[in-house]
Design brief:
The chain is mainly beta and about 550 residues long. Helix content is about 10%, strand content about 35%. The relative contact order is 0.13. Bound molecules: CU-O-CU linkage and copper (II) ion (2 copies). One copper (II) ion (CU) binds near residues 430 and 546.
């Protein structure tokens, strides 16, 4: 990888760029792939700038626009939501709100194409939730106003114009929407956690970077079918970033903001997976903390974790690492093409050993994407490091990880049972109940505002689909037909995973699997008829029509 980089940039230019980069902290050479941990720092939400923490007072204006030099990894232009608030400038602000607070924002579209914001996981009536029929054209604007009724938790926002969601999110439009309340703040206090210091939102996204370091979104037909995979993994916009830590407990709010890539995440030190506590997911705190050493995180999902580094010593490194798994792209079987569809994913190119060494710490890059002057695609199911935590300060930390969490209200369950099937259409294209998106029809009608049970079944010859519902949360009841790698993480007799406990808005359904979820359509009690969306959060799938309107009467 080093080699190919030198082919494009002479050593002297490289040295100069590094010098400038070191000064300004915004320019780095394009990484051929993830895994060269050097001086790149993890961009941590601060008081302004990219991912700055913004607690809106009064109405906020978010302008979707391209901003030059915005991408921390390479200094490339990216699309961002820019905002000004109390004299500070923000790009993709991390919005921090309190439960009960009103939220008011104006979206201004300074793109060359339609857009609209969706507040993913945030309770709001459908006209506030970024339904694609409300997408606004260039120079248009859209007004949002609703009260924050969510539980404390880690939500997010991103574009939702039909057919353009993947590209716009990929080019940079996405950030966090954090809701806090008294109980969450009490826990933070108890654990001495500070947002932006020891409580760190991390959005994980894979990108294809051109040799010039530009973001490349140019999906082939195969990519649209399977999802667009990148060659470089970014965390908060930086590749192979390092966070300097002290010997204490940290909270990481992990968001998979990739268009298609699924991660199998662990924290690894000296070749060993460290235990960590999962305390929350899509819809706030779990009923109780769950100790684990790894979790799957699909596009759209969040995992709120506590990692205790108090027993580590300065100088030690912990890697947030993707662990090997079967990415289960079985769709080829159905095509009767003997796995032809998988060919685009075949590992072809280089592989390299990560410096950390040890078994399984190998990353490899596949052989396609060359036509766009990008590097090879990084396989989904191989092991690769994502971020490095470098312990550099010893501190005395005596707080104990929590054994319980704030109460979680249990919604009613039962009601109408709805089978939902996910499959590939004969001539290609993913479907829900054999249908694809039609702006003007609502194939799912919820007639009674009470609980329902949805049995979401994925075909065997399929691929994993993270299924997301707007407006309401799921409670996962059961997983059946799960593949071995999922089954072995089950924490109860219903086959549920630690990440299924609590409230979910996006649930990963593996090939051959049925995930049964209950949904309480009486909460929130939105006024009047609602038109929400149910879709796959593999954003290529969504844009290709793996989405249905859900009418709630
Ligand atoms: Cu995060 Cu409808 O999406
Ligand atoms: Cu959503
Ligand atoms: Cu999908």
């Amino acid at each position: 990888m080093q080699q190919s980089r030198r082919d494009f940039i002479s050593l002297s230019t490289r040295a100069l760029m590094l010098a400038i980069g070191a000064d300004l902290g915004l320019f780095a050479l394009p990484q051929a792939a993830t895994g060269n941990f050097g001086s790149a720092r993890l961009p941590v939400p601060g008081r302004q700038g990219l991912f700055g923490l913004l607690t809106p007072e009064g109405k906020l204006t978010l302008t979707a626009a391209e901003v030059k030099g915005a991408l921390p990894a390479t200094g490339a232009p990216m699309l961002v939501y820019s905002a000004r608030h109390k004299g500070e400038a923000y790009l993709n602000p991390v919005l921090v709100l309190r439960k009960g607070q009103p939220f008011e924002a104006t979206l201004v579209n300074s793109l060359q194409e339609p857009t609209i914001i969706h507040w993913h996981g945030v309770d709001c009536p459908w006209k506030q939730a970024g339904h694609p029929s409300y997408a606004i054209g260039p120079n248009g604007s859209y007004e949002y106003s609703f009260p924050i009724t969510n539980r404390a938790g880690t939500y997010w926002y991103h574009p939702h114009p039909h057919g353009l969601t993947a590209k716009q999110a990929y080019m940079g439009l996405a950030s966090f929407f954090i809701v806090r309340d008294d109980e969450e703040e009490a826990l933070a206090k108890e654990l001495d956690l500070q947002l932006g210091e020891t409580d760190i939102p991390m959005v994980i996204q894979d990108k294809r970077l051109t040799h010039q370091g530009l973001l490349d979104y140019s999906p082939s037909r195969d990519d649209l079918m399977m999802g667009y995979l990148g060659d470089t993994i970014l965390v908060n916009g930086q590749s192979s970033p390092t966070l300097k830590t002290s010997t204490r407990l940290y909270r990481f709010r992990l968001l998979n903001g990739s268009t298609a890539r699924i991660y199998n995440l662990s924290f690894v030190a000296d070749g060993r997976q460290l235990p960590f506590l999962l305390i929350g997911n899509d819809g706030g705190f779990l009923p109780a903390p769950q100790q684990t050493d790894g979790l799957f995180l699909a596009p759209g999902e969040r995992a709120d974790v506590l990692l205790d580094m108090s027993s580590l010593a300065p100088g030690q490194e912990v890697f947030l690492q993707n662990m090997p798994f079967d990415s289960m792209h079985n769709e080829g079987d159905m095509m009767g093409m003997g796995g032809m569809m998988n060919m685009g994913h075949a590992v072809g190119g280089a592989s390299m050993n990560h410096a950390q060494g040890g078994e399984g710490h190998v990353m490899s890059a596949g052989g396609h994407g060359g036509g766009h002057g990008t590097h090879g695609v990084l396989e989904e199911g191989v092991s690769y490091p994502i971020a490095r935590l470098l312990v550099d300060r010893a501190v005395v930390y005596t707080r104990k990880p929590p054994t319980r969490l704030p109460d979680m209200p249990e919604p009613p369950s039962g009601g109408l049972e709805r089978p939902i099937s996910l499959a590939m259409r004969h001539m290609g294209g993913w479907t829900i109940n054999d249908l694809t998106f039609d702006m003007d029809s609502a194939p799912i009608v919820v007639n009674r505002r009470g609980p329902e049970i949805w049995h979401i079944s994925n075909a065997k010859a399929s691929m994993p689909h993270p299924m997301h519902l707007h407006g309401y949360f799921y409670r996962v009841q059961q997983r059946s037909g799960s593949p071995e790698q999922v089954k072995k993480r089950a924490v109860d007799a219903q086959g549920r995973l630690a990440t299924d406990l609590g409230y979910k808005d996006t649930v990963l359904v593996w090939p051959g699997e049925t995930v049964s979820v209950s949904i309480d359509f009486s909460r929130p009690q939105y006024p009047g008829e609602q038109l929400f969306l149910f879709h796959c959060h593999n954003l290529e799938h969504e844009d290709q029509g793996m989405m249905l309107n859900v009418r709630v009467v």
